[in-house]
Amino acid sequence: MLVRIRTGAQLSGAEQEFVACLRSYPTTAVVVVDLEADNRRVDAVVWTPRGLTVVAVYGFRRRQNGILSTPAQQPWTISDVPVELDDRDAGSPADRVEHSMFAVKQMLQRGLRDPGHISGAVVLVPFRGAMVRPARTTLRPGLDVVVGNVADATELRIYLDGFSAGPASWTVDRVIASCDALGIVDLAPTRAQLLAAGFQEKAPQPAPTIPRRPKPQGVPTPGITTKRQTYVGWSVVGVAVAGILFVFGVIATALAQDSPQPVRDTATTAPSPTPSPPPYQPVECWPLQADC
Which of 43, 62, 64, 97 could cross-link 120 (Cys pair, CB 3.0–4.6 Å)? Predict the structure, then answer.
């Protein structure tokens, strides 16, 4: 990590502890400590290949241990006791770092440099041996509170390594140009130093995206049942069940209409009627006529 401090800067004890932490990290980064942006003192600006963050550093007036609470609209506390910071300016730490972020962004834009997304962090440096937890908390997306000193610097290093999840877009030329826009060319590292620190000369090209072949329409995937197939299957089952019920209904109706005893055929069993004798007609007889 490349650390640059403005000539003649008068650093507080917390800021000196912060610089000692930075110099012990192998992280690829450039840190400029104690600079001025838009007539505002900025404690530190950190460039990494993935992003830019603005830092406000605070120490403590006395040793405090416990659970850190950072409500948005109320004073910060450690184990329900107000935090006693060695701040030089009035106002909350969150407001101070947000103002510094805005000042840095304005200067970069006036210098026709794209700042991209700028993160911010309030770094609290407790007395060595004091334990303040959690060692990191988020005030809002892009603005964090990080606790760390030389004896307990793990969370601060994690923050500097990963405060931005963007692509590696801060190249050597972009870092030098942004230092020029901020008026700190005399503090900017050389190209050789940036390359040796791990910055790239050109931003890496994104991997080409291979378009996926579209699925042929109307051809179902083997082994996968589509909704249309499901509907057709259930329709066939419904028609089959309805047919079976219809057949059972016809059989039941025929059985209900059939008589339990067979009907006798009266045409074959009835006796034949006796024929009537022919009507009597008198016969006229003559004398001496036979059969009369």
Answer: 97
Distance CA 235, CA 119 (A): 61
The residue whose two tokens read 């935090």 is: 83
177-223: pLDDT as tens digits: 999 999 999 999 999 999 999 999 988 776 666 667 666 665 555 55
Q: Amino acid identity, residue 259?
A: S
User: Which token pair is 29?
Assistant: 């980064």
SS3 of 38, please? coil
Residue 123 contacts residue 55 (beta carbons within 8 Å): yes
> Sign of the C-alpha dihedral, residues 214, 216, 221, 225?
positive
- For residue 239, what are its two tokens? 């028609």
Alpha helices (H) in 147-265, listed in sequence order: 154-162, 172-181, 191-197, 227-257
C-alpha 152/C-alpha 186 separation (Å) is 32
* pLDDT of 280 higher than 70: no
